[in-house]
Specification:
Number of domains: 2
CATH architecture of the largest domain: Roll
CATH class of the largest domain: Alpha Beta
Radius of gyration: 22 Å
Strand order of the largest sheet: 1-2-3-4
Shape: globular
Structural class: alpha+beta
Strand content: 15-25%
Helix content: 55-70%
Order of helices and strands: HHHHHHEEEEH
């Protein structure tokens, strides 16, 4: 009977240790740099996990996920169907990154798939200690936009 309090104490300490380890892991995950979040997103996209990649992004900011649940569901469906529509993921390249006041970042990526490229835009906001995904956009009209921009530049050069 003397051993029961000791065993309970040991189990309690183990439980507290596991809980503490989970809290530390969660804190480290929340303190990821915005670039690490983007890198993880593209790694998941490369693995064909488009829907999970969108969930991962918005897990950083539950208030956006709740406020625009329909939009998030639409994004999940679009990203989930990328491999079916566009073929296999090939690569991604950052086209633009703009930082404002150390608290807001806008990234625009060119993402290559077998059949065609797409554009992915990510917005991050850091109101306190952690980066939050503030917005995520996908644009399948990238080649049309590039053509329009090139044509506009051609007209400007001709003047």
């Amino acid at each position: 009977m003397r051993y029961r309090p000791s065993i309970a104490l040991i189990y309690g300490l183990i439980g507290l240790g596991l809980l503490g380890a989970k809290q530390i892991a969660r804190a480290q995950e929340q303190n990821l740099s915005y670039q690490a979040i983007s890198d993880n997103f593209f790694k998941m996209l490369q693995q064909g996990k488009g829907s999970e990649a969108v969930d991962y992004m918005f897990a950083t900011n539950p208030s956006v996920k709740r406020a625009s649940a329909d939009h998030v569901d639409q994004l999940k469906a679009q990203f989930a169907s990328l491999n079916t529509l566009m073929g296999s993921y090939i690569s991604h390249s950052k086209l633009v990154e703009t930082k404002v006041a150390g608290m807001f970042v806008y990234q625009h990526y060119f993402v290559a798939f077998d059949r065609q490229p797409i554009s992915v835009r990510i917005k991050y906001y850091k109101p306190a200690d952690s980066w939050l995904v503030y917005g995520l956009q996908f644009d399948g009209e990238l080649t049309d936009n590039i053509q329009k921009e090139a044509d506009n530049n051609l007209l400007l050069q001709a003047k």
